[in-house]
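SEQUENCE-TO-STRUCTURE ENTRY
===========================
Question of interest: how does this chain fold, as expressed in backbone structure tokens?
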Amino acid sequence: MKILIVVCRQSTMRSYHLPLGIGYVSACLKRAGHAVEILNPNHSCDPLDALVAAAVAKHQPEMVALGGMAFHLREIKDVAKLVRQLLPSATIVVGGPLVSTQPEVVLSAIPEMDIGVIGEGEHTSVELAAALEAKTSLAEVRGLAYRDSTQPGQVVKTQPRPIEENLDALPWVDYEGLGLDVWSKLHKPGECAPALILDENTRVMPVMTSRGCPYACTFCCHEAAGRRYRLRSLDSVFGEIEEARARWGINAIFVYDDLFCLQRERLEEFCRRIEPMGMRWECSMTVGQINPDMLKMMKKSGCCCISIGVESMSPTVLESMKKKATREQLEIALAQIYEAEIGLWSNLIFGDPKESLETVTESLEWYSNHAQYNFRFANIGYHPGSRIYDEARASGRIGDPATYLLSNRCEINGTAMSQQDFVTSRVLANRAQLSFGHAGKLLDITADPTKGVVACCLCPYCGAEGRLYPLPQMPGSLCSINCPKCNRAYRVPAVVHLKESAEGAKALEALQLLECSGAPVPELEAACNRLLTLSPWNGYAWNLLVGIADHCGNSPLAATFLENAIVVDPYNPSLFEQMATRLALLGLPSAREKYARKARHLRSLGILLSGRLEVEFPPAERKYLLEQQVFELNLGLFVASFAYPCPKESLKAAS
């Protein structure tokens, strides 16, 4: 049978997550004798519909297989519609977590699809192809969902497909079909996984050594692979790596396992076998696995980064998430990884059902005092198959499932917070992430014709030179480097801003003239507001507002404006020193120390202000980005409210 598998588009010629599940399905179908082609649109900049049309015309498949995560529904729906128009006789099959979690919803949302695959798809796909070729009943194939021909609107689900216990029975991933030769070279330093990519000579291979996760975090979905933890033999794993190494020059390994090496003996053998290969490698582990001796062994074998699921530093939220780890345990593990000079990949995610402004503040306060870990921030996603999704559906926070999935927005307010407090929590998280974080000393920023904008810095921990390229072109982006020597992460002391518009330049000039003329406060205030609407990252205006608030005797509001000045210029030690002094005077000594610490860090490296990278966008995109920047800096604050001091409680949260 001629089969075309279409991969969901996540990127266009940039770093993305290679879908190994599809590679396993393709390999199984090829082993069964079928003619399989994979269309991976991530390796082209051409429009998706043009790529699909060309692939269908070239291969004339009898079956077209699609699949992805829940929020790929819209793309899969569009591709299925196009395939049906181009090739009415083809059987359209959809699989992956999207179908495994709610097959009825997907069959209803995609009228063009014929069959859904539930659970692990390797054996199901082979049996399905055989049944279609022989024109036998689908009812005997386990793991399927399809429309009932005798009862309109009803879905038939065949017997569940047991998970594959013997992972060695599966063929190796069809890396050639997925395009590993292209994927391995797509990544730049800081992409793929922190510390894994050294330079343009790095060739990465993703590999799975196990399936399943025995834990039950409330935001995770394990519908496809299940919670039962299963292992491949290391002979199989290293045979696959050796073949890819010989064929594509692989020199770095990204272990895709949800949970790597629960057994100490297995980890020791993995390290022993990979060390002579001289490869850098990354993996995900739990807090309970971490200890200094094990980290020393991993570091020696080439491990450059470990992903740890922290998610929150609020005990209330950790308990709600069923994380099975305490704040104290997390702190010990993080410190041990840091001391072992292994890169750290971890997140703080906000929006758990038990989240509140108090729990958000707990996590942000912890982060601002542990900025060396360079965490990423995100809002929690409510994905089908997770416990929090089911609870949100039951409570009515998520309405029609298909409408929800087609919206492509998995971040909702599933908390007890008001919408105003929920938005405030996002603003506070954004401010904390932009304001805190250790930086390296900037040596140079240059434009390279092939690499884009390149930043060169000295590591603040070991003094080694590191490079980041291309620098992000999105305003407000953080620019981080993992040191090639000690693997620790630090930031490039530069900020990405929209290039000043002609209107913004005129507004700045008008404001400066007003200040020099001794204009009254209301006029200055209005001029600041005008400028910040056009250029919300203008430090001159924010610093002037600080002075105006002080002049009006409103120290708390001056501190709030100073926070925005820090977000705009997060590598200016004098601003952090000013904030430390203000917080001490306002009776908030505990909040003061983190600002004083950041100032000392910057001074010790000789960093006196932020570098600035200005970017231009077309008018429509610029308008959207400008609105986002206004939101991020909380310009909705009533600038004309100097007569009404901010409550100290608000300042505590903002700090």
User: Anything to note?
Assistant: The longest helix spans residues 419-435. The domain at 184-436 is CATH 3.20.20.70 (TIM Barrel). The first strand starts at residue 2 and ends at 6. The chain has 25 helices and 23 strands.
